[in-house]
Design a protein that fits this description.
Elements: H1 2-21, H2 26-35, H3 37-44, E1 51-55, H4 64-75, E2 79-85, E3 99-103, H5 110-126, E4 132-136, H6 141-151, E5 154-159, H7 167-170, H8 173-186, E6 193-195, H9 198-208, E7 212-214, E8 241-247, H10 256-263, E9 269-275, H11 280-289, E10 296-299, H12 304-311, E11 316-319, H13 326-329, H14 334-342, E12 346-348, H15 352-361, E13 364-366, H16 372-383, H17 386-402, H18 405-416
Parallel strand pairs: 1-2, 1-4, 2-3, 4-5, 5-6, 6-7, 8-9, 8-11, 9-10, 11-12, 12-13
Helix pairs in contact: 1-2, 1-3, 4-18, 5-6, 10-16, 14-17
Length: 420
């Protein structure tokens, strides 16, 4: 009915311009009408498949989770559009099998950025048809929720983390209260929710009495062999074991500073950071102050399509989040599974979900603490034990075969089964 009404309004306007103002004949008017495919499509073409709009606040370059979701739903036959933002420094995206929309906004961080993004997203969703909305994290939930009520379309909420307990909010209680108010208002009303691990699912289920499913951040295994980048091209040492610290959010309380202090105590080893985050400038300053330029190296964040080849340059992977807030305490970071796919034994802090994976598959060590001396000792234990490295490598092949998106996506498909 809406399409027919829009068609009639469009015809009326077109008639006014063509006939009344330009003195065209009625024959010319109807000829032009039939030549404009837009009007025909607007009125009569029905969507061939259900339309899904997935929204997230990232720039989509390194966000593997939303890419996998979009890819899986599009291969299921749904018409998918992925919405994010474009920063001044954002890379151009490679063509994908689904549609992409990235907003350019006057602000790139702070309260005004979040306000502008949510307003822009609200109006985008208002004027674009969707049968299904998939909102990622609390910072896109409000406009999606409002539109789902206005248009009566299905809403799915993917919580990538324990959002209201991230350190950036814990340190700013007034801002934290705003996000908590949004969460308390909407979460109990949600029917389709999933998150990244059992711990966060249990917290949300208990808190809001809502069923929360789990879909982990597992990588696409594919059939292609992982070919590492050449170390020489990036000035990396060939005669040292490299510990890799990877991530798009290398922020406070993630162990970057301690990793630098520890690597200074380890012979025949180097440290490589790949990615970006709030503390990267401080980390580079620290390397300069400690005169570790020949032991610590930095590579900018990479598109996820290329990232695995960079990951595979290293010998060991680090995931050193601190138990300083509930979000990190219950986290299960993407990089853990990227390390597994690249065949890197993992050195990690004693966090519930991370430790569960490492011990279940016996693919690395847990450091007793983040004291530089303890971390360095654990690094040395990994570097100097060839037999253990061989065993880890064997176990990593098993873990990689099991912990892949090709298996995990079945959980996602089950959640979306009802939409057809």
């Amino acid at each position: 009915m809406l399409k027919i009404m829009l068609f009639m309004v469009s015809v009326r306007l077109f008639f006014h311009v063509c006939v009344l103002e330009n003195k065209a004949t009625l024959f010319e008017f109807f000829y032009k009408i039939t030549s404009y495919r837009f009007f025909v499509l607007l009125a009569f073409e029905m969507p061939k498949s259900k339309k899904v709009i997935i929204s997230v606040i990232s720039d989509l370059v390194t966000d593997q989770r939303v890419h996998r979701t979009a890819l899986t739903l599009s291969t299921k036959g749904l018409n998918v559009t992925l919405v994010g933002r474009k920063l001044k420094a954002s890379y151009e995206l490679q063509p994908r099998t689904y549609s992409i929309k990235r907003f350019k906004l006057p602000f790139e961080n702070g309260p005004l950025f979040y306000a502008f993004y949510n307003i822009r997203l609200f109006f985008y969703l208002l004027f674009h048809h969707a049968d299904i909305l998939v909102t990622n994290d609390l910072d896109t939930l409000l406009p999606n929720f409002l539109i789902s009520k206005l248009k009566r379309c299905a809403l799915y909420y993917d919580s990538h983390e324990y959002f209201t307990e991230v350190p950036e909010l814990v340190r700013r209680p007034k801002i934290q209260k705003i996000w908590l108010a949004i969460e308390h208002f909407i979460f109990p009303k949600l029917k389709n929710v999933y998150t990244v691990n059992d711990s966060i699912a249990s917290i949300y289920s208990s808190k809001y009495k809502v069923n929360v499913n789990v879909v982990r951040n597992l990588p696409i295994k594919g059939n292609e062999q992982v070919i590492p980048q050449q170390r020489e091209a990036f000035g990396l040492p060939l005669d040292k074991k490299i510990f890799l610290f990877q991530g798009a959010g290398i922020n406070i309380d993630r162990g970057g500073e301690e990793a630098i202090e520890a690597i200074a105590l380890v012979e025949n080893a180097a440290l490589l950071f790949i990615g970006g985050g709030d503390v990267m400038i401080r980390l580079k300053e620290k390397v300069f102050e400690m005169k570790l330029e020949k032991k610590v190296f930095f590579i900018a964040k990479q598109p996820f399509e290329k990232l695995i080849s960079f990951t595979a340059m290293a010998d060991f992977g680090l995931t050193l989040d601190k138990d300083s807030n509930f979000n990190y305490k219950y986290s299960l970071p993407n990089k853990l599974f990227d390390y597994i796919r690249a065949g890197l034994p993992v050195l990690a802090t004693d966090l519930i979900e991370v430790k569960k994976i490492i011990e279940a598959y016996s693919i690395g060590l847990i450091t007793p603490s983040l004291l530089p001396s303890d971390l360095a000792s654990t690094m040395e234990a990994m570097v100097n034990n060839k037999n253990l490295i061989e065993k880890w490598k064997e176990n990593l092949q098993i873990a990689s075969a099991e912990l892949c998106w090709e298996r995990e996506e079945q959980k996602l498909l089950k959640i979306f089964d009802e939409v057809g």
